[in-house]
Amino acid sequence: MFRMLLAATLSVMAMVAGPAAAGPGAKDELVIGITQFPSTLHPNIESMLAKSYVLGMTRRPFTVYDKDWKLVCLLCTELPTIENGLAKPVDLPPEEGKTQGKRGIEVTYTIQPGAKWGDGVPVTTRDVVFTWEVGRHPMSGVASAEFYRRVTRIEVKDERTFTFHVDKLSFEFASIGGFQLLPAHLEREAFADPAQYRFRTRFDTDPTNPGLHFGPYRIVEVATGSHIALERNPHWYGPKPHFRRIVVRAIENTAALEANLLSGAVDYVAGELGLSLDQGMAFEQRHRDRYAVQYKPGLVYEHIDVNLDNPILADRRVRQALLLGIDREKLTQTLFGGRQPVARGAIHPLDWVHADDLPAYAFDPKQAGALLDDAGWPRKGTGIRQNAAGDRLALELMTTSGNRARELVQQVLQSQWRQIGVEVKLRNEPPRVFFGETVSKRKFPALAMFAWLSSPEGVPRTTLHSDSIPRPTNNFAGQNYPGYAVPEMDRLIEQIEVELDRDRRRQLWHAQQQLYARDLPVLPLFFRADPFVVPKWLQGIEPTGHQYPTTLWVENWRVAGP
Amino acid sequence: MSRFLVHRLLQAALLVAMMSFVCYALIGLMPGDPIDLMLSSDPRLTPEDAIRLKAIHGLDRPIVERYLAWLAKALSGEFGYSRLYAQPASAVLGPRLANTALLMGVSLTMAALIALPIAVAAAARAGSGFDRAVNALCFAGISVPTFWLALVLIMIFAVQLGWLPAAGLPMARDPSLVERGRHLILPLATLTLAAIGGHVRYVRAAMIEALGQDYIRTAHAKGLHPRRVLWRHALRNALLPYVTVLALDCGALVSGALITETMFGYPGMGKLIFDAVMGNDYNLALLALLLVTALTVFCNLLADLAYAALDPRIRQG
Fold first, then answer.
1. How does strand A29-34 pair with strand A245-250?
2. Which terminus of chain A is more solvent-facing, meaning fewer CB atoms within 10 Å of its CB: N or C?
3. How many angstroms separate the CA atoms of B165 and B186, rounded?
4. Domains of chain A (ranges plus CATH)?
5. 10 Å Cβ neighbour count for A309?
6. What ipTM was reported for this prediction?
7. Among A254, A218, A295, A208, which residue's Cα sits nearest to residue A36?
8. Which chain B positions have a beta carbon within 8 Å of A439's beta carbon?
9. DSSP label at residue A436
10. Which domains does chain B show, CATH number per domain?
11. How many CB pairs under 8 A join A and B?
């Protein structure tokens, strides 16, 4: 009711609204609207998209995936490869009681010449070593410490060149996007007591200190809960950015965000944290004269996790029938204007390891019915199927309440599955309960619909390896929520992780995707697309479709020429 | 009177102490914890990370143990650090409290100042066309969802007319007082318009009841000017229940207005409390909720004193 009221109001108001938004003119300030305010600005404590978005303008990771999903250097000068000699696999000495040691790797990077913190102090290997010390300390509060633990030693060659000694060989050896440098000259004092570091770090106690940043911009104002203002960093080593000042404004309500955009209070709504797809499409319809709405389907994989402990769903034929019973092409065409491509598996078609020959599971209610008949769920008339014991083929489909797109998809699925004789009950929970309890502790009785955000060529160890099934014994820490335990999948994941040869790795990935598509521990739906609402006078924003935000290339943003 | 005051103050202190445990336990009883949520959104986190992070944030200890540790520190004036903002909870709270007190204080005052004369006038002409129109407007005001009202105001005054900014806080560095004021107009208007209806209804009902009392008839019989009877005799009695409503509303001076703050991107207490509770930020949520409790209790105490001032029978009895 409220949504209808809201939509009607926006439509009517938008029709009568005049062009209040200011034109570009000699614009040197850009106001970006996002829907979340970062709670902390420390680059390594807590992972939060809003923080990554803002910090994308103030710092640079050593390596990132670019818009074409290729790994590139940003803070380093050359990407290490085995061919160029900057990466060397090594045999590590055997651990006590073992005869054979693991394989590790030594990877060498050089920091960009001219890289300086915002207070003029050069970025050096001292910062690298300090960041590693903070990251590996168990009390520092760094969220993902796996990489820091894997680096056993840092060999400092000079002020700018260093070598990581890593105790695990992995094809991802060159990718260190999560290793975000900390300024040793400012942060060492706060780290004197590691247990207190997260409370004393200058990123939170003195966030406008220029020495904390070395990107094209530095933070000059933090109005907690409202906005963060950034201005050009005079010590930035790259090309001078166009905008003198950028303000990132947090407006959590997307309808209010849209109104702010129309009023000119906000220039641009970030796709990473902005309008939903349906809002973006509706906005495009109304304001295509002034705004270009860009859509890039990315690595947000909407899917349905299947609880394999459920006796009905333990049968692969039932899972396959469920997928065949969904007209996913029509669903994405009708609900999302075809902007969210149907997924054949968890690997995105833009990823170089994506297999093109996977079964499509195109809509085929007849085949779905045949599979269910085979599985012992015959249909009498047009009603719900029942097995020999008289049990109805009834499943519960859960998702996050309040997410309109998911609730719509849920209703379509319920209707389509009913046509093949499957009764589906819908039960939704607030995200807090759904993710914090139901999914993470595998309490969903049958089907749980949500999304994963991955990285290009992201190995699904935590989501598909049998070691990662959440159990009380591992403190419910894994993310293999379906409870999928197949030795072949475990073996493939383990082999992919250490295979350095691209061709052989592609073959392994192919086998992994075939197995995934055959077993369907997860029902793939589609890859989500985020709308970037860009005024026509603003150029240079290139959506990436993965976890690295567009702001990492903010120096390329500019006002369109005459 | 002083005995009464001491008694009420002791009651209030006990209530606040009890509320501290209730709030702490309620937050702790919520499903999942922040690390569980972090795990479900970040596939890079390992089981070792989860165990380490829970230990760092004290989430691996029983809730009673955590509460007692907090209480011991709170009694010595230390309210701990906010987990979400990595700052002392009191430091996070300060600016938000000031923002909310300004927004809610002004809107509450404006709502009361506008509602009082309208309610008195409507009660004096009960059943008239004016009264019916006021009633209809009041019901409309009460029924309209705040987010919708905010959106309509933004669309008219910020988008269509371009007269006022859509955001609650200016983004310029060191904005002038006028600029700050301009940004506050729409959030204030939203809150005031949303509140007026309720206030008018309370005062109008109390006034109609007061106007039917014997002492009003006596006052009229004594030949007092009708305006004096209305404003000095009837309103004084009608204000008694209204004071209770205002006292209860005082809690909002620190609890904020979540929806309005969200719509205008205004950093106030409503959004802060919501985020702190949802993010299991015990120290911050607890301090904020205790402030709300303490202020509500204090305002009720003030209401009791106001009762005594307004009604001599209470003072004497």
1. parallel
2. C
3. 8
4. 29-290+536-559 (3.40.190.10), 299-529 (3.10.105.10)
5. 12
6. 0.75
7. A254
8. 40
9. I
10. 90-310 (1.10.3720.10)
11. 213
